[in-house]
Amino acid sequence: STTATSSFSIIIPFRNEAGNLSELLQSLSNLHYPKHLFEILFVNDASEDNSVEIINAFFNEKPIDCALNNIRIINNIRNSNSPKKDAITTAINIAQYEWIITTDADCNVPIMWLKTLDAFIQTNNPKMIVAPVTYSNNKTFFQDFQLLDFLSLQSATIAGFGIKKPFLCNGANLAYKKGLFNIVNGFEGNTNIASGDDIFLMEKSLQKYPKKILYLKSKHALVITKPQPSVKDLIQQRLRWAAKTSAYNNVFGKFVGLTVLFMNALIIVLALLSIIGALRFELLVLFFALKFFLDVILINKSARFFNQPLNFISYVMSSLLYPFFSVFIAVYSVFFGFKWKDRGFKK
């Protein structure tokens, strides 16, 4: 009901996203917000497909309710080992408006996205807003597995802000003042790391304005992204995420991550001890059941908020597989790099 006052520059880096852009473009065209208060900056990171043509064709056929010339496609200016950080920096350098919002080309944004952010800004006067993200899900087991993993991360994000120890965020739905980006010198200090355009910026912002980095828990601000299409893609994504953890400065975040890794590794060790007869099988079952129900309590609340009802069978199977998956990713990431958008990155 408030009159919109905040102005937004929406930044969307893309590389070879022809298969994903249609849903994003349609959702952007549906945005309910005064057209003179936002712009959309698509940053082309050396796409080799027809992504640019798809964007141009869409807006030629269906002009968005946005001010004239406020939709632009610009080329990424590479200056570092991180194409995405370079893309965001390139766009911020020409952004017209006070607030920067980042999202991804494989996302779908809600119709009241900007309106909800604006109301939150007017009420709370933040410097940075971390907002919710969830997966679309066609209910295959592979997608359920990814969804449960992602829900655990979103649960941890919300919990961290709830106890005033934030340590996670997601660049698919992140807003911050352009002035804040400049004050903390953008991504300076972590451009050698390919990913982390969200986490490292939040860490630097927390050091400067610990009480001005807030979480927006609203379904009207919920961005939907897509799970990985294959096991290979999922492994590469998780390796990319793991590659940045060694550079975290957030002590609490490191503690949580190491605790989760330890618990998953412990399950594997207990299973091996049970197999060789060094541990009673009942004790393994008891430990697994305890962890299982604690996870259910944590994730189920978030699942309701994200409107993602849990499939009990998928949850049990995922809980059995996840310890092996997470430990594999942790160990593999220590020694090897990863691929991202058809580019190889060293550890």
Largest sheet features: 7 strands, mixed
Number of domains: 2
What is the averaged pLDDT score? 92
Main β-sheet, spatial strand arrangement:
3-2-1-4-7-5-8
Using the coordinates shown, work out and report the CATH topology of the largest domain.
Spore Coat Polysaccharide Biosynthesis Protein SpsA, Chain A
Give the CATH class of the largest domain: Alpha Beta
Number of H/I helices: 11
Low-pLDDT residue intervals, each spanning 5 or more residues: none
Tertiary shape: globular
CATH superfamily of the largest domain: Spore Coat Polysaccharide Biosynthesis Protein SpsA, Chain A
Report the end-to-end length measured between terminal Cα atoms.
49 Å
Q: Cα-atom Rg, whole angstroms? A: 21 Å
The computed structural class is alpha/beta
**Percent of residues in helical segments?**
40-55%
Into which percentage range does the β-strand content fall? 5-15%
* Structure summary, number of beta strands: 11
Q: Could you say what the CATH architecture of the largest domain is?
A: Alpha-Beta Complex
SSE succession: EHEHEHEHEEHEHHEEHHHHEE
Supply the key terms.
single chain; 347 residues; alpha/beta; Spore Coat Polysaccharide Biosynthesis Protein SpsA, Chain A; 2 domains; seven-stranded mixed sheet; two-stranded parallel sheet; 11 helices
Tell me what the structure shows.
- By secondary structure, the protein is α/β, with parallel strands linked by helices.
- The protein folds into 2 domains: 8-233, Spore Coat Polysaccharide Biosynthesis Protein SpsA, Chain A, CATH 3.90.550; 253-345, no CATH class.
- The chain is built from 11 helices and 11 strands.
- Strands 3-2-1-4-7-5-8 form a 7-stranded mixed beta sheet, sandwiched between helices.
- Strand 1 (8-14), helix 1 (21-29) and strand 2 form a beta-alpha-beta unit.
- Helix 5 (141-162) crosses helix 11, helix 8 (231-243) packs across helix 11 and helix 9 (251-275) packs across helix 11 (312-335).
- The chain is globular.
